[in-house]
Amino acid sequence: MIIQFNSKSNITSDEELRGQLSSIIEKDLKRFSDNITRVEVHLGDEDGSKEGMNDKRCTMEVRPEGMQPIVATQHANSLFEAVSGAATKLKNSLDTIYGKMRNY
Q: What pTM did the predictor assign?
């Protein structure tokens, strides 16, 4: 599973931050890692340099093999919360999709 990060110019995304965020994503999507070819993570700060509630945004796209991409977006007070929320939404979506596939 390849994790690719994209961030707006107002987000400082260094190697350490990407490593920490990758750990969150890998933990949440671990069960599906054999079926996922790539995860694209788009990070942004809605308010730029100003402080605001839920101004950090993470849009995450998962590409399961042989399926259409699945996208989730989460706004939060920190990038960690935004990434965790988006990963949880994707995990729940994948649970539902693969659960339905098993039942047929």
A: 0.87
